Amino acid sequence: MSEHNLCQEFLSQVSDYLDNLVDPITCEELERHLVDCTNCRIFVDTLKKTVYLYQQREADIELPGGVRERLFKVLSLDDLVR
């Protein structure tokens, strides 16, 4: 399989990989790819940092009254309104 195809395969599973939802064999294959592929390694590191920063920031932000509900309604995420 070409390097490009390996990267595409990796990127198609990166979310499940970061959420620890892939089986152990797939996890080993993905980690092996990360050792060999600088681009995917940079992507994963950046994604992890982005998620971390978002999670830290999310706790600090309080939207003005009703904005959250209106936003979630527009985005069709009504079931997430607390």
Number of structurally distinct domains: 1
Question: What is the radius of gyration?
Answer: 18 Å
Taking pLDDT < 50 over at least 5 consecutive residues as the criterion, the unreliable ranges are none
* Record field, number of beta strands: 0
The major pleated sheet works out as:
none
Counting helices, strands and paired strands, the structural category is mainly alpha
Give the termini distance in whole angstroms.
Answer: 46 Å
Provide the β-strand percentage band: under 5%
Relative helix content: over 70%
Mean pLDDT: 84
Q: Helix count, per DSSP?
A: 4
What spatial form do the alpha-carbon principal axes imply? elongated
| SSE topology string | HHHH
Describe this structure in words.
It contains four helices and no strands. The protein has helices spanning 3-18, 24-36, 38-60, 67-74. Helix 2 crosses helix 3 (38-60). The radius of gyration is 18 Å and the shape is elongated. The protein starts with a helix and ends in an 8-residue tail after the last helix. The model has no long low-confidence stretch (mean pLDDT 84).
Short description:
With 82 residues, this protein is an all-alpha fold.
Task: Reconstruct the topology from this structure.
Blueprint: H1 3-18, H2 24-36, H3 38-60, H4 67-74
Helix pairs in contact: 2-3
What key attributes describe this structure?
82 residues, mainly alpha
